[in-house]
Design brief:
The longest helix has 20 residues. It is built from 14 helices and 16 strands. The strands form three sheets. An eight-stranded mixed sheet has the order 3-4-2-1-7-9-10-8, with helices on both faces. It has a six-stranded antiparallel sheet with strand order 12-13-11-14-16-15. β5 and β6 form a beta hairpin. The chain is α/β, with parallel strands linked by helices and 439 residues long. Bound molecules: aspartic acid. Aspartic acid binds next to loops.
């Protein structure tokens, strides 16, 4: 078996956390490929090293004296090295980095040093080889990940070593300059490495024991999700559930490699499995509930709309011309509703209304603001009758007025629109009917 293990910033924030990681890696011979993030927060109110690097580089760029900020960053690493009792010194590395800050090698380079230095420490601590991600992970000129070029190099380079550390979050552009993924991008590196070595599992270690059915800020201590499919996860993370970087599923998904989300602080928990497909039924019919506030609905009415060819296209064209993306478009016989993000729409509201009148000639347009969308996601809904009905009755009991309900054709999700102020009550009601009632 081959396992790729990625550790997030909070798992590597201090020498104490490093020790836990060391124990986890050593516990299984198969854990051969380690992807570290930069040191994260040690306590609430602390600053992540990545943020310290951005801040320090900004000072360098503005020609300010950045020595103090730089020293604080070095202190974070020195604390880890001495706490682990290593004889390693990063002094010469820091000299090079300081010079490169003065030469203004770029914000991406600066941010990437967090993972780079942590990778060196991790390799030394575990006795693993170290491979600089800039030499094996590549981006195209336009900044997107270069899958072909990466594949050609990464697999061959990794094959030279039995056990390796590859720092997360960055790679290099065709001209050799360092480029990072978006924030949280070490998750993507882990996935790319798992793809390259044809891993059996991609373990992603963080500070929670996997995904929860619902946001714990709304329902305290909710039950966890044991198994979720890639598609279900896409639906949930789009609606705000964040544990894993959105793009991290694509490289492993292509190879059918499962992801196991684990907790560094509770390694005995089995966490959440993210898989391509499964015959394991979720206990509660639904797999998860997520949602977001801050939507507007634009309700357009026109008699005989259903018979008019091209009506929908004309309406959606207006949104496109104004650079507004739409979220959902439920429709009736003579009505069509477009849900958009309120903050994207506000400034362009009247332009959109005029545009729709001009192009589509509707009878009326009615706008409603301060709406929330809730996604109830579950592969189990397909084979179960009455899910939508149960949601409706639960919401009616909770005195929540449903503004919209839209079931995706895959029967994987049901989207419900409610007023912002009913958001929490609606989620509680849905959780209660599907989960609490079955506990
Ligand atoms: N250290 C980077 C960040 O804070 C990348 C990562 O942790 O995945 O975003």
């Amino acid at each position: 078996m081959k396992k790729v293990v990625k550790f997030g910033g909070s798992s590597l924030a201090s020498a104490e956390q490093f020790r836990k990681v060391g124990d986890i890696v050593r516990a299984e011979e198969d854990r051969r490929y380690v992807i570290p993030s930069a040191p994260g927060k040690r306590f609430s109110g602390d600053t992540k090293v990545t943020d310290m690097l951005y801040d320090c580089y900004k000072a360098a760029e503005e020609g300010e004296d950045f020595k103090g900020k730089f020293k604080n960053i070095k202190a974070r690493y020195d604390e880890i090295i001495s706490g682990l009792g290593l004889s390693l010194s990063l002094d010469s590395e820091f000299k090079v980095i300081e010079e490169n800050f003065k030469k203004q090698l770029g914000e991406n380079y600066a941010a990437s040093r967090g993972e780079y230095l942590n990778g060196i420490i991790m390799a030394d601590y575990l006795g693993f080889a170290f491979i600089d991600a800039a030499k094996v992970i590549f981006f195209k000129e336009d900044g997107t990940w270069d899958e072909e070029k990466t594949k050609a190099t990464l697999g061959a380079e990794l094959a030279k070593h039995d056990k390796v550390v590859v720092p997360g979050f960055y790679g290099s552009l065709p001209d050799g300059t360092v480029k990072t993924f978006s924030r949280g991008g070490s998750d993507i590196t882990g996935s790319i490495v798992a793809q390259a070595v044809h891993a059996d599992v991609y373990e992603n270690w963080t500070d929670v024991s996997g995904f929860l059915i619902v946001d714990p800020r709304i329902i305290p201590d909710p039950v966890g999700i044991e198994t979720i499919t890639y598609r279900e996860l896409r639906e949930l993370s789009y609606m705000g559930a964040t544990v894993l970087h959105e793009e991290a599923i694509f490289p492993v998904r292509k190879e059918g490699i499962p992801i196991n989300i684990r907790n560094t602080n509770a390694p005995q928990d089995s966490g959440t499995w993210i898989v391509e497909s499964t015959c394991q039924k979720s206990k509660y019919i639904i797999t998860g509930i997520a949602g977001k506030k801050g939507f507007c609905s634009i309700n357009i009415e026109k008699d005989m709309m259903n018979a008019e060819i091209g009506f929908g296209r004309k309406v959606l064209n207006v949104f496109e011309d104004n650079g507004i993306s739409f979220e959902h478009v439920p429709s009736g016989i003579d009505t069509m509703t477009v849900f958009v993000h309120q903050d994207e729409f506000m400034d362009k509201e009247q332009q959109v209304v005029t545009g729709i009148h001009r192009l589509a000639k509707p009878d009326t347009i009615d706008i409603e603001a301060d709406l929330a969308l809730i996604a109830v996601v579950g592969r189990g809904m397909k084979s179960t009758r009455g899910t939508a009905g149960r949601i409706f009755s639960a919401l009616a009991h909770a005195k929540v007025n449903v503004k919209m309900i839209d079931q995706g054709s895959s029967e994987l999700n049901i989207i419900i629109g409610v007023k912002n102020e009913d958001f929490e009550a609606a989620i509680k009601a849905i959780y209660n009917i599907f989960v609490v009632a079955r506990l």
